[in-house]
Task: structure prediction
Amino acid sequence: MRNEGENVGKIRMGHWTPHWGMPLFKDGVMTEWSKKRWTVFLPVFCFWIGLGATFGAPPPISIPVDYTSLTNPSEGVFGFMDGINRSSYLFGDLWGLRTFLSRYGMTLSLQETSECLGNATGGIQQGATYDGLTQGVLQMDTSRAFGLRGGLLNVSGLFIHGVNLSPGNLDVLQTASGIEADDGVRFWEIWYDQKFFDSYGVSRFDIKLGQQSLDQEFMDSINAAYFVNTMFGWPMVPSADLPGGGPAYPLSALGARLQWKPVDGINILGGVYNGSPAPTSAGDPQQADPHGLSFPLNGGLLAIAEIQYSYPSLGDMVYSSTPALSGTYRLGFWYNTENFADERYDDQGLSQANPASDGNPLNHSGDYSIYGVADQMIWRSAKDPNRTLSFFARAMWAPEDRNLIDFSVNAGFVLKDPFTYRTDDVFGLAMGYAHVSPAVAGLASDTAFYDPGAFSPQPSGETFVEATYQYFVFPWFQLQPDVQYFFNPGGGVENPNSPGQLINNELVLGTRAILQL
Amino acid sequence: MKNQQTTLMFLMAAVLLTVPALPATPSSNSNDGYGPGNPASPPLAGAQSTPSGQDKGRKGLLETIHRHVTLASTIPDNGDVNPYAVIIAPVSAGTIEKGDVLVTNFNAISNLQGTGTSIMDYRPSTKKMALFAQLPKKVPQCPVGVGLTTALAMLKSGWVIVGSAPSADGTTATKGDGCLLVLDSQGHLVSVWNGPTINVPWGDMAVIDNGDTATLFISMAGFDVPGPGVVDPKTGYPPVLHKSTVLRLKLSIPEGKPPVLVDQTVIGSGFSQRADKDNFLFGPTGLVLSPDQKTLYVTDGLDNLIAAIDDPVDRADSAGTGRVVTQNGQLAWPLAMVMTPEGHLLVCNGKDGKAVEVDPATGTQIYAQWIDPDQAQTPPGNGDLFGLAMTPDGTGFYYVQDDTNTLMEAIP
Result:
């Protein structure tokens, strides 16, 4: 950023003069002015001496400056190395790019998440993989850009690279890492958000239009977000039950979202989106839209609403000295209008495992889910206000007949500033549970009935626990060792590498690195 | 299983709807100064009464504040962030209109502390934010660089004086002593004040402005502060020093010419300070002069108190750390401070997003209000609040939020 002692050019230094602005000596001779004022100077001088007895230091000096001669020093190619231990970004100003964008009210964020995860036990096979995600987000504040108050334009993209651990080694429902996705380069979100203001200038209403990823706003838990497992982001029920996994990383869907804050502390979100993030319902939805530019509108509709309550809220008066333990609670509901196949029965009412079945699943028009999220600080250190312990829980339910997962929950604890002077570190302990719907289990049972020789275990539920520690190295760099243990992977499914046996429990270990570039 | 799931869902919903109604859990440490009855707890006006139907008449300003308006982003074209100082322009001069709100930025676009070089100007009449001054990163008379602090003042003569606490790497390990920068009303740097008594001019200035003379009160928080990596083995934190001062500078302002320093006196000393890897440093930040000019109030964040220095205008020596007005209670590392029209102190917290109103005559903490409850930080609003300034009509106040880099206005 800068070099010590660098000469920035010609600076005209002012002559040092006594504090009353007149010279005492010229060419070594006391001036007439100073002779006449000696009677004034002496006591003043004594006054300064007296000051020196109290605080022995000369007064500040005033140095005139030629403003027009001042220039900024050049940073050079490696200028970003200056202050690298405290910069928010590894590459600082990105060789002037961030400053250039800032002139037009724009900010650029580049984040690399790289991790090495592996399973030491269980799974389909043991081993470790490297996986990585580069996210770029460009935002424009319209007020800074061209004076339109309350507008925000967002364009984001993804570069997904590496190998996902879960499909190759684990075969779990609740995938081990939230960055797992098909390799490739794709647009992610492209939207515009506009706030509306009342006569006092307060905004209680805004609308967002465009390609949106719902995991950025709905069902969020600020504490759950610290964990590595996918389910602490976009939860299990919508991941498994919505077409294409729903409009969530790495996918998104065109739609409109309204946000209304009727009173401080209450926030209501409501959105309507294309029913599926992919143009087709068959196959891998990510491959159906490999670059995020399909903008499908051919599906049904996904409607979602959520009400949030937060304490403390803006403007809350506090009359007691008891420290506030903050919390946020959310209650939500989504409905998708597309057609959903029954998980067990065909359109004749027969089990799909029945040899007499026509193979056409019973059709259900629409699917829905209800969910709740809680984030609550439960303890705050009196000696170190940065040290807090919080609890979170998220639970959601969906009808069993048309969904793979009819219930999922994750919950845990987050301790911030766990050790002295490690104010930005976070330690977390959490669990997740996904329940395979009875309809799916029933189909497995039917299969075993009609084909007694086949190994057809009845899936039930999958549970995992996770312990993680986010270690703050630099503002642009965090290291996160992580441990997860999966019980009954897949809910109890056959190991394809060991026919007739279930997949064994899995111990997953690894480290994630998060870098702001 | 279906019935169990349904039951569990309803139980979850019941929990979600019920928990917010439960009373807040008290602190686990009985010696923290927060609990009622603790000797360190200040008296709280109406602490046992409920918000509605309580004492007749209003107790202070905060209860009249019901709206918090986001006025504008404080980020200039060069991307400076971390707004600190907030002052109201007392006169129209140069590019500044009377009533404009001036805001400094402490960080450059890299978010390194002690590298911000911009002063922003918000004009309430047009609701527009513009750049008032963009200082160069290097000013040779101010070694190490420029990092504009909460110390900002504008004189009736139009001159703007701002403190600089520069750092090469965003920490006190490479900080310079800093200086006071004098700008004209066009935002041009005209002179620099430095010297042994100026070391990280940190907090908001208190000003007596008589037009052709002025007196400034400025806190100096940088003496001997080491880098944030220097840790006291006993506490595990950087060592707390007691070398911060409150410096009184008397100025003469010849007509049409920059202010001239004529006198300096350290009137407060021994205030706590320490380095911090996240917050650059902690030191006395709020300075408020009583209307009769007989008392100067000082916030001491590290000791979590507001102190008072008597006879600040005329005293010839240091009052040390003065006398304690109020401590702990709802204060959480108090930072900038202003005085309301009725003579109450209004101070913002550094460790949560509350503004606290104090009656200095009795030391009573009247109440507090959440003006930044952002739960992206824990506690909410932690590290977001800095400068404060009363609106000219005295019915509200301006403040800045570091998490969103915005200038806010709290109004009835």
